[in-house]
Amino acid sequence: KNQSNPIYIQMAAKKNSPKTPKKQTESAKKPEKRSRSKTPTKEVAKSPKPTKAITPTSTRTLRSATKKEKLKKNKQQEEEAVKTPILDEKERIQSVTTVDDTGVTEEDTLNQSLGELQLPSDDQDSEDDKQKSDVVDDGDDDEGENEGDVYEKFPQDLPSDDSSDEEVEIRTGNVPKHWYDEYNHVGYNIEGEKVKRMAQESNIELFLRKANDPEWWKVIRDEANNANIKLSDEDLDLIKRIREGKYAHDLGDEFVEFDNPQARIFALEKAPYIAKRKFQPSKWERIKVNKILHAMKMGWLKPKSEEEEKEEPLWDIWEDETISSQTLRKMPKTIPAPKRKLPAHAESYNPPEEYIPDEEDLKEWEELDPEDRPFNFEPKKFDALRKVPLYENLVKENFERCLDLYLCPRMVKKKLDVNPNDLLPKLPDLSELKPFPHEESLVFRGHERRIRAMSVHPNGQWLCSGDEDGNIFFWEIETAKLYKKLKVEGVINSIEWSKSPEHELVAVCADSDVYILVPEVSTRKAKGQIENFFTQIEDTDVKETDENIGKIVEWEKYDSKSKDFKNGFRFKLHLRQTVKQVTWHIKGDYLATVCPAENKHSQILIHSLNRMKTQRPFSKNKGLVQKVAFHDEKPYFFVATQRQVFMYNLKKQVLVKKFISGAKWISSIDVHTGGDNFLVGTYDKRVIWFDVDLGSTPYKTFKYHNKAVRRVTYHRKYPLFATCSDDGAVNIFHGMVYNDLMQNALVVPLKILKGHRVVNDLGVLDIAFHPNQPWIFSSGADHLIKLWI
Asked: What is the pTM of this model?
């Protein structure tokens, strides 16, 4: 500290001056002028020590001393390169020229004047604000002198607020630049002169400059000064540091870049000090090491022993070929050859008599292919082993085995220790799913050809069937007695009884004709209703609205005096193509026919009985149509082609959904009574269950048949469905469809019914459920109809 410093002299004088008592000070206190500060007067009265006001003369002395000290400190900072906070001149003057009522002591005023850095509190911040707003008053009434003193506190040589270090040549302001597009100048300078536009380079000149000058990319365009500026290495370093998020200028080794992990010494923290625990060993690491040591002592944890280098043994290449191949060649592990089958009784030199074939067995054995024969030799009997001759095929069989071992690849199958019963799904007990058909009850005999179609009366009392000779049989179900027999021309492909109880009609399709008849088995009430229905039809020639349909279908009404009319025939529809299927609508007024042929637009036809007209619902079908079905409740119509199923809305005449079966050829289709599920049978041995709400892919696929599936059908009252195939079997399933849309259908296989013989690779051709009982009828290629209950 320099004792010649005026601040030091003033502070020493104040310390040596005698103190006056508080009472005298308060009595001698003059009334002061109110300052502009908003601080209340109560806070002024709480000042601990009233200080004497500083005169303007002492203020100037302090200002000059402060400036000298500032210059001296700045010089020391440049030499020592130490970062120290420097108070502004304005703050330093305000800290010295403080009035008594500010509440700041003399020691605080001197510390601020000497440039010491203190962290102000909230009270000091408010007092500093008060100091800035107060006016220095020395007790005189000359206000002009005091005002002049206030303005003298701010130095006149302060730097300008303009932070730009270069002068801008173009002084046009924020004027749009396109205003000068039509002129040769781009604006005006500070003297009002025009600044000429620089000549623009052409593409060729720009290309040549880039080719000749390797530092062309350093040149940038300065629009404010209308000039091209070449960036220096310092400028490029500055731009690079700014883009990396660092300080614009390199501050040296004393400052550490926050984003520079290499130069970082200590991480930035809020605390002004580093905790002592960071320089001490970690407590948790010590605990972890102690646990590891304890485990090693107890023998729980054993260190890895260094494996001694073992010399590879030398193998004799002539001793074992497999070992030498593994050591010399880095080949995969060899797989041992499969063992041969152990000899059976037939290969014995003295086999039992039942293994010795006779002449018929030898003929059958010779007719079989060598691959299908059970043995490759003829079993013979010898009295003794020494009498057995040399086996003829010994060399041949050994050679074939060598070829199999050499050419056929082998693989190791990993056996899993899994209980097969655990893989099966848990199904309910069959006793809980009763009733369902499980045994044969009646056999209907009378047909002499294959029975391709049959149908059950809606009340469950009568059965109608048709064979390939054109015979139509009406049976009584309870007694299996033939009640009526009719004859038509052609092979009967489909028969179906009307689903409406009011219209007890039967539709029969034979070759290209469709017959509508009223059987005699109907009751008198039903016959009366049917006759009234037919009397409403006009007895006139039918003129189709579509001329093309008139060429395809011809309606014929039977005469009431004819023999066919007495047998029950009422209408005959003659088509140009063979009819494969006929199906009724639930109301009984409409029926649909399917004629799969090359003519795609007339494969499906819908016939109206009350108007005696035929409609063609589709102008063009998407593929070869196999089967169709009506929805029981909604105006939906299902069309099954060879590989896909389409669901149409006949009322809106739009396609609702398309279902992909994944099968090669669809054979049959049936819709559930609820309407949200349907079954599809295929010729490639599969039965497919579709759920309309689950999407266009199958819900379940069943493969329980060995040959083509001919028919699938649902029961109308019980949760049952059945399938039949050419393998002679009828499979019965439990299919429960729940009303809860969140729960999927439950499908459980119940019973396999086998009773029909397979004739010429044809088995069961058609099946039909009883409408009221859990019974099922089956007809096959063996000319029989069987009832299963």
From this structure: 0.50
